[in-house]
Design goal:
alpha+beta, five-stranded antiparallel sheet
């Protein structure tokens, strides 16, 4: 039986042993007087706890995770994102009341003791031994800081967090060694500053600045004594003393802190009593985190920026490395988003397509020659409530960047075919017979020296029976004649087209390769609006393709210092000659002046060019166009590819059939008009393309105004005679698309998801 002292008390060895167990459980640290007892009790057996002098000397103190602020191109905030909501502030930016309150309740002798508080340990030893349990700990603010740093370093990994907080003697000794080092290296003021910046104050608030903003909607430097006491009291148990969920318990705790401050002489008893009588005075600011908080409808732009950061190797060798930097935060990211363009996109989208509509729209604007993404928006807002038609899928971008599998662009792909033909030496006056209906020509050369063969006798047709050639390139482009462009691709081969697409950054949204078949001329390969907008920017910049970019600059705060991070830069390369690009612009200018895209024309003397697109069965409709200084794409359709756009209300209007010129066209017109307001008004480099006469047939596949009078222009007046297509609107009806393509011809067909799977090809 162990020896007892006279009077029945525990012997010194027994008392030390009991304290050892209790203090480890309570989070106290063995120091000075207690450490010799470790050997006496046999707790430092080889292999169980490292010797004190063998512990690593370096203190691993990671930069504190902070909020990241995302800005538009003008420097205004778009959104705030964070792994942990924290804003690091200097000690001078923290109210003296707050400094006094946290010391009073957590470590009253902070400025008197070293890394450990011998008196505190003896006091805890006495009380815990007397009460036979964990009644009081003895950790100093310095020791608590060490533990919090370990937890911070563990991040969101539950295993590492458990290791950082486990109640073992080895961890406690390690914590002690680091506490001693911190005291030597940092000093009391810096330790207090770091502690107040790292500590958790509940309600997702890390650090005193975030806590002050969360509960009182004010900066920590402006905290009153009763407010500071409330925050200081929360630290011991953020859930128990949560003033939002349990104001009564929080009030008791606040008053305990106030009394402790009075006992220590930080404030007078009168001040303490007066403060105790005051209500909590909460002015709650709800936690706001992530792209869902974005203003100006920029949630998807914000999300795209995040995807760029997590996917670009410039920010770290591995995805884990990049995620660590992102979660660490403290970043100020200035983006390319132009606030005027973004506002215009959102206004136009809201005007023409409603959130509750069966179909959605997505629109993107980029800057030719720089690759800068200026705006990105959609009718279904960023969010998780599917009942409200919210979505987290960015309908404007590729699947790898948070988007869907894309949508068939229909006839908006035809200018890429024309560009390939012009680069191959074809004259812009080239005519084809372009009958109303025909079989796919066969064989057609593909990459690798092979041929595509029409073994099934598959055929295609134009939109209207009145569309009968011969047609010139100018007229066929304006009227989006399917058979013309299939004859063109048969002439030059499929490989030049896929190569031109690659040069223009045109890839399938799902990451697969573009299929080697002639139906690509009709836009059967699923693309994203960003891809198409940036491709058309190549025409606007006279043949120079620039990779899209969303980030202008990033500043990272690490501790008290800030540094600039390297960001992705747009790389530009020549995709086609200037003459080819200028010729395409002349062709597409005709589309908005006298073709299928007249309702997309900007008017007011501002030159524009573009192309409509409507897929077979009307699952998707597009307008992609540009001016010399902006390019934009608009898609309208059902992201799930289930609702055909026939007999459908969109934006409060009823449509028997949706065409690229009828819904996407006006969206494009309105968004570009607002985005370009006050911008320079340059003209295209004019290219003269002689007319081919006589034209036969009529038919318009897209703008509800064909009149079937055989003149092949919108009002039967023919071209304007200057080499550019002219004329005004007429009125007509449109037959249902009649051509089809065997399913096994179209790469990537599915029955759901985000694909736009028609057979493509109508203006």
């Amino acid at each position: 039986m162990p020896n007892k002292r006279s009077g029945g008390g525990l012997s010194p060895t027994q008392q030390a042993a009991k304290f050892l167990g209790v203090s480890v459980l309570a989070g106290a640290v063995m120091a000075g007087i207690a450490l010799p007892a470790v050997g006496a009790l046999g707790l430092a057996a080889k292999g169980s706890v490292e010797g004190f002098d063998e512990l690593p000397a370096n203190l691993k103190q990671p930069p504190l995770s902070q909020r990241t602020t995302i800005l538009d191109s003008k420097g205004d905030s778009i959104a705030t994102v964070y792994s942990r909501d924290r804003t690091v502030v200097d000690l001078k930016e923290i109210s003296p009341y707050m400094q006094q309150a946290i010391i009073a309740i957590e470590d009253a002798r902070f400025y008197q003791h070293g890394a450990i508080d011998l008196k505190g340990i003896l006091r805890a030893l006495n009380r815990n031994a007397r009460e036979g349990g964990v009644a009081q700990g003895a950790s100093t603010l310095t020791q608590q800081l060490v533990k919090n740093v370990a937890v911070e370093e563990a991040g969101d990994d539950p295993t590492l967090v458990a290791q950082a907080t486990q109640q073992t003697l080895g961890r406690k000794i390690n914590e002690l060694k680091k506490a001693i080092q911190i005291e030597e290296e940092l000093g009391k003021k810096k330790i207090l500053e770091n502690y107040l910046n790292i500590t958790f104050f509940g309600q997702q608030a890390y650090g005193v600045e975030a806590g002050s903003q969360r509960y009182f909607s004010k900066s920590a430097k402006n905290l009153k004594v009763e407010e500071a006491a409330l925050l200081a009291g929360i630290v011991q148990s953020p859930s128990r003393y949560d003033p939002v969920n349990d104001p009564q318990e929080a009030t008791k705790r606040r008053n305990t802190v106030l009394q402790r401050m009075a006992d220590l002489g930080d404030i007078s008893q009168t001040e303490a009593d007066k403060a105790k009588e005051k209500p909590l005075g909460l002015h709650i600011r709800k936690p706001k985190n992530g792209c869902i908080t974005a203003v100006k409808g920029a949630g998807f732009f914000c999300d795209y920026v995040r995807e760029v950061f997590l996917n670009d190797p410039i920010f770290g060798k591995s995805k884990e490395d990049r995620a660590k930097i992102w979660n660490q935060g403290g970043l100020t990211i200035r983006t390319t988003m132009d606030p005027k363009a973004q506002k215009s996109v959102q206004a136009s989208v809201k005007k023409h397509v409603r959130q509750k509509d069966e179909v959605a729209t997505a629109a993107t604007i980029v800057e030719p020659g720089t690759g800068k993404i200026l705006a990105m928006g959609q009718s279904r807002p960023y969010g998780l409530d599917t009942k409200k038609n919210e979505t987290s899928i960015n309908l404007s971008v590729d699947e790898s960047m948070g988007g869907g599998a894309g949508y068939q662009p229909g006839s908006t792909f035809k200018p890429i075919v024309a560009a390939a033909a012009l680069e191959d030496g074809m004259a812009p006056t080239k005519s084809y017979s372009a009958p109303y209906k025909m079989e796919y020509p066969s064989p057609i050369s593909v990459c690798g020296g092979k041929n595509w063969v029409n073994t099934d006798g598959a055929d295609l047709s134009n939109e209207s029976e009145s569309e009968v050639g011969p047609y010139s390139m100018k007229k066929a482009t304006a009227l989006s004649v399917n058979t013309y462009f299939v004859q063109m691709i048969a002439d030059i081969g499929i490989c030049p087209v896929t190569k031109m697409a690659k040069k223009m950054g045109v890839e399938r949204a799902d990451g697969d390769k573009i299929g080697q078949n002639p139906s690509i001329a009709l836009g059967t390969q699923e693309m994203s609006p960003l891809t198409m907008a940036n491709a058309y920017a190549t025409f606007a910049s006279r043949g120079m393709y620039c990779t899209p970019v969303a980030i202008e600059s990033i500043t990272q705060r690490v501790g008290e210092k800030s540094k600039s991070l390297e960001v992705p830069k747009s790389t530009c390369s020549r995709a086609m000659s200037e003459n080819t690009a200028d010729t395409i612009s002349a062709l597409l200018k005709g589309v908005v002046e006298d073709g299928t895209g007249t309702e997309a024309g900007l008017g007011s003397g501002r030159p524009s060019a573009g192309k409509t697109g409507t897929t077979d069965e009307r699952y998707a409709a597009w307008f992609v166009g540009y001016t010399p200084n902006m390019a934009g794409a608009v898609w309208v359709g059902d992201p799930a590819h289930k609702r055909r756009m026939v007999n459908i209300p969109i934006g409060g209007q009823w449509y028997a059939k949706v065409f690229g010129g009828k819904v996407p066209g006006p969206i494009w017109r309105d968004m570009m008009t607002g985005a370009l307001e006050g911008k320079p008004n340059p003209d295209f480099n004019r290219v003269y393309i002689p007319d081919e006469r006589p034209d036969r047939g009529r038919g318009d596949d897209d703008n509800d105004n064909g009149n079937g009078n055989g003149n092949n222009d919108d009002n039967g007046n023919g071209d304007d005679g200057d080499g550019f297509i002219g004329g005004t609107d007429g009125g007509a009806t449109f037959p249902t698309p009649e051509f089809s393509i065997p399913e096994n011809w179209i790469q990537g067909q599915t029955n759901g998801g985000n694909n736009g799977n028609g057979n493509g090809g109508f203006g």
